[in-house]
Amino acid sequence: MTTSLPAPRRRARRLVSAGRLLLLLACVPACAASAPRRGALDAELARLLPGPSAGTAAARLDPSAWREGRERLAGLRREVEGAGPRTLRVRMALREPRTGHVLEARGAIAVAPPAIEGRARAVGSDTPEPEGALRMILLGPGGTTALDLWARGDRFRFAVPALDLLRRGDASTPRASLRGLPVDFLRWWMLHPAAGTLLWYSRAASTDSFVLRDGDAVIDLRVNDRGVIGARRTTWSTAEGARRRRLDEEVVIAEGMGCGNVRYAQASTGLLITVICEAEERERAPDPRAFVDPDALRPGGGS
């Protein structure tokens, strides 16, 4: 025989769970370890999407292999760009690094892809968006806003409203100050996961392996013939006159480029997140207000 908790106790439990989720998300930068370690998904990435062996390192020297790599990378980029403006309804499960407890949140992600060949994407207005825009709002237990991320071009706003936490930045923001915040990774993954300068390519075991440079980050991107995609993004410090050091390492494994299950691990914090895409809306573009700086929408607000 089972008994249910009284309503006041159920509400209290939801509020406690919401508070734990908010506190964990808020302390991500402060909780970052002094030196990033390999994340929880590394072994799975190697098993599902094996990397190239040392013997294939000469592939870059083969002009035909190099051309094949560029063509396959261009195909991935066309697939991402062709998805168009869309809204994803998602469910997220986040594992606390210290206790192992799993906390859940639900919400939506509005995506306006980058421009194709210099033309503006249709995001509900005629405003060009050459670098894309993103808005993600997640609600924790009890309906409390757990996370509100806005990104447009190189600008971003990361907020946990219930805790009055707000971080803003742009291209001039030192990467070291963003350590532990997955802002750069989310922009790269959601808007242009195949972006970056191709440094190296090989194909083995039905898997394409690319090494890309994206600003201060180096990405090991792998895609197999079943459409499974994985990436390891390593961010490095580039402070002038300072010794180059690894800031963080993030790994993602996804069922494919579109709406599907995605798992994410962050080495510096130990965060392990599973995102389940429950629905995708492509027929109707997201409300263009979603891509406006949230502070600019408020009376007297500024950017």
Summarize this entry quickly:
The chain is an alpha+beta fold and 303 residues long. The chain has 6 helices and 13 strands.
Write up what this structure looks like:
- With about 300 residues, this protein is an alpha+beta fold.
- Helices cover about 20% and strands about 35% of the residues.
- It has a 13-stranded antiparallel beta sheet.
- Strand 11 (about 245-255) and strand 12 form a beta hairpin.
- The longest helix has 20 residues, at about 5-25.
- Residues about 10-15, about 30-35 and about 115-130 have low confidence and may be disordered.
> How widely separated are the two ends?
57 Å
Shape: globular
Q: Mean of residue pLDDT?
A: 77
Uncertain residue segments: 10-16, 32-36, 116-129
How much of the sequence is in beta strands?
A: 25-35%
Q: Structural class, judged by helices and strands? A: alpha+beta
Order of helices and strands: HHHHEEEEEEHEEEEEEEH
Blueprint of the fold:
Elements: H1 7-26, H2 28-31, H3 42-48, H4 63-82, E1 86-95, E2 102-112, E3 133-139, E4 145-152, E5 155-160, E6 165-169, H5 183-191, E7 197-204, E8 207-214, E9 217-224, E10 229-236, E11 246-254, E12 262-266, E13 272-281, H6 294-297
Antiparallel strand pairs: 1-2, 1-13, 2-3, 3-4, 4-5, 5-6, 7-8, 8-9, 9-10, 10-11, 11-12, 12-13
Any key phrases for this structure?
13-stranded antiparallel β-sheet, alpha+beta, globular, about 35% strand, 6 helices, about 300 residues
